[in-house]
Amino acid sequence: MKKLCIAAIAAGVLLSGCSQKETTIQPTHQVQEEKPSTPEQTELQYVPIDENKYDGIEKEMIKLVNLHAKYVNERNESSFKELYQDPDRFDLPPSEILKIEVNEFHNMKHTQGYVSVNITYRVLETKEVTTLSPNFFIAQGKESKEWNIVDLD
């Protein structure tokens, strides 16, 4: 009986020691996941499109695409809406833009055109990373002469 009690106590001590190591490791792991991303930890860090590679209308269009990404990432809804010809049609998306690549410019006219891009973004709530290929329809206002995003499809 004495040997059985000693064996049970020894087993309890061993098991509690093993479970202590797990609880010590687990909080450390959780703390690391909750730290904000630093550039070294982030898979993709947004870099604006180089506007100097473009001229004329194309450059104006790229400026708007870059500002679109900037305001999305800064969560600046008022500045985001100012980019659009009809600000009430568009809301700040619940995502962070990680990368934008220009595919092509098309249907270009003197004061309007489309720029097709690939946008890689991370959904803020789920952290899911996805790439879409929208077209920005950008035009210059007749009266204001300001360039605005008219539509995004």
From TrEMBL:
Species of origin: Paenibacillus agilis
Top-level taxon of origin: Bacteria
Signal peptide (from-to): 1-21
Keyword Signal belongs to the record: yes
Key words of the record: Signal
Name of this chain's protein: Lipoprotein
